[in-house]
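Hey, quick one: can you model this chain's 3D structure?
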Amino acid sequence: MASKAQGAPTGEAIWMDGEFVKWDDANIHILTHTLHYGLGVFEGIRCYRTEDGRSAVFRLSEHLRRLYDSAKINLMEIPYDIDVLTDAVLESLRCNNLSEGYIRPLVYIGDGAMGLHPGDNAVRVSVIAWAWGKYLGEEGMERGITAKVSTFNRHFVNSKMTNGKTCGDYVNSILAKREALLDGYDEAIMLDPQGLVSEATGENIFVVRNGIMSTPPLYSILDGITRAAMITLARAEGLEVVERPLTRDDLYIADEIFLTGTAAEVTPVRELDHRTIGTGRRGPVAEKLQKAFFDAVAGKRPESEGWLTYV
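Sure thing. Here's the predicted structure for all 311 residues.
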């Protein structure tokens, strides 16, 4: 057996097609259709330790609803109802002894027919849970990260539908992320085919200018669940939030930029394309919304009641 890469996820068991198997036995056939052609859907979900010591999954029902929506967009029928996958997520956390962690439901087309049409190949489902810290680093959460505008455009809405989390779509993100890292940046900001700001490689984007928070409209971006939570929290804090087209130079003259997503949570951008953003450190809006977000996932805010599913 090949040795695992340093820092690779590990655990006790993975839920596969209705039952738990040992972590190292969770294997698939080399002719798995999704491996060759990229047609599959997934979610990224987080579980947090709350203030009373219990563990709770953040916006589980919304994440699973989007998983089923993604499958429908891609003409895939998930062979389990949502209650089964809800239980699978919660039991995955228990089986792997996780009080906090990241959860990855994955729906994919199994082996059988090859070629672009998968024929009657079975639709398979797995749920994986593991411990995962800050995606863009603890320092990035406080100090902010550096980013560049990518040379790769985001998907056009009618060339590949943008509302689903489709496996193959993320080749686009990988190219942009690798380019950014090779050029010495932490992350990439991507434009749509019209040259307007879309999103980062795995995060939505917010811009603050003169006290107003702006974010791109949904037509060219993923409808992020953390994004939606951030809009709710910002308005509860008395901030004005608008969804509007943003240009590249809107980013350069912003007072603040921050990224949101399940993995990234709320991460400020301190520098973009060698231009200092605001004061070059985490701004007051990002700091306020980081606190609001982490209070919400810890069960300390009114919004928590509808957003947390306890393990």
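One thing worth noting: The chain is about 30% helix and 25% strand.
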